[in-house]
Write a structure and sequence with these properties.
The protein has 223 residues and is of the alpha+beta class. It has two domains: 38 residues, no CATH class; 163 residues, Mog1/PsbP, alpha/beta/alpha sandwich (Protein Transport Mog1p, Chain A). It is 23% helix and 38% strand. The chain has a seven-stranded antiparallel beta sheet with strand order 4-5-6-10-9-8-7, with helices on one face. It starts with a helix and ends in a 5-residue tail after the last helix. The N terminus and C terminus are likely disordered.
């Protein structure tokens, strides 16, 4: 009876584990047998490297990038996003500036789009990046996007994306020379952010996380 109960408990535990993985769950990080504390090293780190640049480092996803310190960083399970400042509403008609770095498994592939403005390859040190850019205007709203991709191994892809939106000044009530100035200001803000985005992509580097302890050092062996 005791043996049957033990087998039943084992089967229940295994069933719950399989169900959790099937639901996209992640098994808990094992605890150190000696201390009972969870063993995990910090996966991400953001540091200021100069008066103008900060560095984001993610050991779990295996990369780091340098970006303007004025950009507001927000992390996710798949990388990092940046809200890029674009000044006051009375100086331009920009409505969104955003950049992202994402990790994905599999082969790199850009999304299917019908209008590609430009396509090229960029080299930075030993690394190579494929690039496409897209622009479109719908009812006075102007969209510009640029994307880079980098294939590390057969099943590891990094995607870099830049997205911007600005409204034609005429749609906001501006006329004549004032409208022209607002248009030029908007384009200048986007161009500056786009250049900073490309420099961020060029700063991309692989990060190798700290090696974990050997099981022999963590789990005491019986003598």
């Amino acid at each position: 009876m005791k043996k049957s109960l033990t087998i039943l408990i084992v089967l229940i535990v295994l069933g719950l584990l399989v169900w959790g993985l099937g639901k996209g769950g992640t098994p808990e990080i094992p605890a150190n047998v000696e201390t009972g504390e969870t063993v995990s090293a910090p996966a991400t780190e953001t540091t200021k490297v100069s008066s103008k640049l900060s560095e984001y480092k993610n050991e779990e996803l295996g990369f780091s990038v340098k970006y303007p310190t004025t950009w507001e960083a927000g992390t996710s399970n798949y990388g990092i996003s940046f809200a890029i400042p674009y000044g006051k509403a009375d100086t331009n008609t920009v409505k969104r500036l955003e950049a992202k770095v994402s990790f994905a498994s599999g082969k790199c592939a850009f999304p299917a789009v019908t209008t590609i403005k430009d396509r090229s390859t960029m080299k930075s040190g030993d690394l190579s990046f494929n690039m496409i850019s897209m622009s479109n205007t719908v009812q006075g709203i102007n969209y510009f996007d640029r994307m880079y991709s980098h294939q590390k191994d057969a099943n590891i892809c990094y995607i870099f994306s830049f997205s911007s939106i600005y409204i034609n000044p005429a749609n906001k009530g501006f006329k004549g020379s004032e409208a022209t100035q607002m248009l030029n200001n908007s384009k200048a803000v986007i161009d500056e952010a786009d250049k900073a985005f490309t420099e961020m992509v060029k700063s991309f580097a692989y990060v190798i996380g700290a090696q974990g302890k050997d099981e022999v050092d963590v789990v005491p062996t019986k003598k």
